[in-house]
Amino acid sequence: PLFQAMESEISAAFDSGEPEDILSRAFKLTVTREDICTLQPLGWLNDRIMNFYMGLLVERSKKEGYPAVYAFNTFFYSKLCSTSHKGVKKWTKGVDIFEHDVILVPIHLRVHWTLLVVDLREKTIKYFDSLGQKGDHICKTILKYLEEESKEKRNIELTASEWTLHSMGTEEIPQQNNGSDCGVFVCKFADFISRDKPIIFTPEHMPYFRRKMVWEIIHQQLL
């Protein structure tokens, strides 16, 4: 019965009411029915859904037994690229990102979502792309950002040679089998990584993940 109740709630989120109805509010974000509808099969996830989900992951990471997670906004990387460290310096005002275990950087490349993950415990920067493209230059851009952020905020020089940069290969992570699931892949890569779990899902899980995310966003709670 619980599962049926959840299912009917998810269907109602898609089908009843107006596009501008607000279905969830948290993390200084509002999610409308129109936003939620991007989670329908083959929908393209928008910035609001991505940022809201990252907010849920950060919230969960405050609980006992989870790595401490910091997530950048989806607009961070493009802003960094266009303005260098100076332009994003204020984004971390009052926050020491180096006090966290894992930093998530969701990246929007015009028509494709990818994820960059900094593991401060291991000193690794990894790039996750469900279309298998390499992001070595993106890893380098973020390492340079970390060096400047560390110098500016903590007066500590990072030693670049101690860091490992790696674009995940197609044999290391699951790959999407359509042109629209990249956003869901990014959210689920981030979900598994932020629990220190191996990434074991497949493209077949995507329809289920989409529906589950609708419920999680509406209830502001990860299942």
In words, what does this structure look like?
By secondary structure, the protein is of the alpha/beta class. It has a single domain (4-219), classed as Adenoviral Proteinase, Chain A (Adenoviral Proteinase, Chain, 3-Layer(aba) Sandwich). The protein has helices spanning 2-15, 33-36, 47-60, 76-88, 136-154, 182-193, 206-219, and strands spanning 22-26, 29-32, 69-71, 102-108, 113-119, 124-128, 164-167. Helix 4 (76-88) links the parallel strand 3 (69-71) and strand 4 (102-108). Helix 1 crosses helix 7 (206-219). The longest helix is centred in the middle third of the chain and has 19 residues, at 136-154. It is globular and about 55 Å long. The two termini are 17 Å apart. Residues 29-193 form the Ubiquitin-like protease family profile domain.
Key words describing this protein structure:
single chain, 223 residues, alpha/beta, Adenoviral Proteinase, Chain, five-stranded mixed β-sheet, two-stranded antiparallel sheet, 7 strands, 40% helix, 16% strand
Overall mean pLDDT = 94
Quaternary structure classification? single chain
The succession of helices and strands, N to C, reads HEEHHEHEEEHEHH
Task: Supply the helix-strand structural class.
Answer: alpha/beta
Keywords: Hydrolase, Protease, Thiol protease
Domain Ubiquitin-like protease family profile: 29-193
Family: Belongs to the peptidase C48 family.
InterPro entries: Papain-like_cys_pep_sf, Peptidase_C48_C
